[in-house]
Amino acid sequence: MWKVLLVEDETFVRESVKEIIRWEEMGFSLCGEASNGEEALEIIKREPPDLVLCDIVMPKMDGLQLLKETRRAGIGSKFVMLTCIGDFESMRQAMEFGASNYILKLSMSVKDLRETLGKISAELTAVKPAAAYSTASEAALRQQPKLPDSGSAIDRITHPEVKKIIHYIERHYAEEITLASLARHVMMGENYVSALFKKKTGETLIHYLHRVRIEKAIDYLRSTDLPVNQIGHNVGFMNDNYFIKIFKRMTGTTPSQYRQTR
């Protein structure tokens, strides 16, 4: 069983999350809970869990600071962030500091939580020996997870504002994109835009943005000899390590390893 620490300052939310999932069936067990970041950090340092399910906005120490302090302590627990505010920038920072995913509390469902736990379980159990990459072949490349075509999203979506967001991202993926800039583009509130996009497309804004950027990065890797860090910058990732992390999460391999097998 993978051990889970639940960190949430709202008692009602904490109890709801505990009750809506049959944790053991998913291969997880709740090893503890905390109502703020300071309390959680003590638990993590004393007995590191495999997964921390953590609110972003909390008293004493927020979820982002907890994630940073956990990493500074050299503890590699997986983090999934809970938020109810659609704070694009906070979620981006959380992903950059190593969070595996995030869930919007206002629209959280059993399906969302089960899918997230399934992905975390796969990450925890996956073993990818480095030696396997050194003998990668074209056959191995064909077996790598295929990214869904982001362009097809436009054909499926009929909501005008969501289509505008998709067009904007596909035109400006190389630039800095924030939830605020997307909300201004369609003249809507940030929270509403975030929830609307997830409802109409089935994926979060940040995941869609990452997907578009990684698709473009793959094009560069296949058609140019540009350095990996330059490709990352060209598709909108200013942090090299973050680019490699997201690329590997979405394709199963690093950019350099992907290029070797093209």
UniProtKB/TrEMBL annotation:
<dbReference type="InterPro" id="IPR018060">
    <property type="entry name" value="HTH_AraC"/>
</dbReference>
<keyword id="KW-0804">Transcription</keyword>
<dbReference type="Pfam" id="PF00072">
    <property type="entry name" value="Response_reg"/>
</dbReference>
<dbReference type="InterPro" id="IPR020449">
    <property type="entry name" value="Tscrpt_reg_AraC-type_HTH"/>
</dbReference>
<dbReference type="InterPro" id="IPR018062">
    <property type="entry name" value="HTH_AraC-typ_CS"/>
</dbReference>
<keyword id="KW-0238">DNA-binding</keyword>
<feature type="domain" description="HTH araC/xylS-type">
    <location>
        <begin position="163"/>
        <end position="261"/>
    </location>
</feature>
<dbReference type="Pfam" id="PF12833">
    <property type="entry name" value="HTH_18"/>
</dbReference>
<keyword id="KW-0597">Phosphoprotein</keyword>
<dbReference type="InterPro" id="IPR009057">
    <property type="entry name" value="Homeodomain-like_sf"/>
</dbReference>
<keyword id="KW-0805">Transcription regulation</keyword>
<dbReference type="GO" id="GO:0000160">
    <property type="term" value="P:phosphorelay signal transduction system"/>
</dbReference>
<dbReference type="InterPro" id="IPR011006">
    <property type="entry name" value="CheY-like_superfamily"/>
</dbReference>
<protein>
    <submittedName>
        <fullName>Response regulator</fullName>
    </submittedName>
</protein>
<feature type="domain" description="Response regulatory">
    <location>
        <begin position="3"/>
        <end position="120"/>
    </location>
</feature>
<dbReference type="GO" id="GO:0043565">
    <property type="term" value="F:sequence-specific DNA binding"/>
</dbReference>
<dbReference type="InterPro" id="IPR001789">
    <property type="entry name" value="Sig_transdc_resp-reg_receiver"/>
</dbReference>
<dbReference type="GO" id="GO:0003700">
    <property type="term" value="F:DNA-binding transcription factor activity"/>
</dbReference>
<feature type="modified residue" description="4-aspartylphosphate">
    <location>
        <position position="55"/>
    </location>
</feature>
